[in-house]
Design brief:
Radius of gyration: 15 Å
Largest sheet: 2 strands, antiparallel
Strand order of the largest sheet: 1-2
Strand content: 5-15%
Number of strands: 2
Number of helices: 7
Bound molecules: zinc ion
CATH architecture of the largest domain: Orthogonal Bundle
Number of domains: 2
Structural class: mainly alpha
Order of helices and strands: HHHEEHHHH
CATH superfamily of the largest domain: Winged helix-like DNA-binding domain superfamily/Winged helix DNA-binding domain
CATH class of the largest domain: Mainly Alpha
Shape: globular
Amino acid sequence: MPSLFSPRDIDYLMVVYHLSHVRGTARISDVARYLGVAKPTASLMLKKLMRFGLLRRVNGGYTLTKEGLSICTDMFIKHTIIETALSRLGLDPDEACRLAREIEVLIPMDKALKIWEGMGKPERCPHSDPIKCTTPPPASCRVRVIARIR
Ligand SMILES: [Zn+2]
């Protein structure tokens, strides 16, 4: 497993999490459509994430392993903290979300939590998603803004 994930890796994990929640499994064609990529591109990426132990095959599609879910949860907590901070500094919520997507993979959790404490431990991000969660909401802002889910 890599020590650093790319924002794109996390997009895939979040979309698989969302799709397996609503449909029981995340099919390659649905993942490709949600992320606006070609099917072979999605297929390669899903296989890579499976080799890292973050995804497993279920009913002709993919779902997150425990490890994959734990990474999604950590990223989502960092995501909402950073976007809350950026929106308090004047960015609009979706702008803050897109920038937080780039930063969440780089910032260690203890530093993110320090920022969260410095802001007075807010409970929700600017999109009203919970910041301190045990699992991310399936249709979180992280998924909605990137995958343009209605
Ligand atoms: Zn948000």
